[in-house]
Specification:
- By secondary structure, this protein is mainly alpha-helical.
- It is elongated.
- The N and C termini lie far apart (about 60 Å).
């Protein structure tokens, strides 16, 4: 479901404070929105933690086609060979 810009602006204002009590009545759209807005804020961000917990409890994946398989790690870079 797509969320209108007006609703996104409202959510951005409602959930802007990382230390505020997270909403108890999250739904999928709000959880994904809050998670994307607060991503990278660290473990003290209560909004992000609540959104991630909701997403995990409802098995929401960022991957297309709903694939939940582990993604193989990228190969390590080749060592640089020094020139003489």
């Amino acid at each position: 479901m797509q969320t209108s810009l007006d609703v996104q602006d409202l959510w951005r204002m409602q959930y802007r404070d990382c230390g505020a009590e997270p909403p108890l009545d999250l739904d999928t759209d709000r959880a994904l929105f809050i998670r994307s807005v607060h991503a990278g804020h660290g473990p003290e961000c209560r909004q992000y933690l609540a959104a991630v917990a909701y997403c995990r409890a409802h098995v929401i994946s960022d991957r297309p086609s709903g694939s939940y398989r582990a993604v193989p790690a990228a190969a390590p870079p080749e060592p640089e060979v020094g020139v003489g």
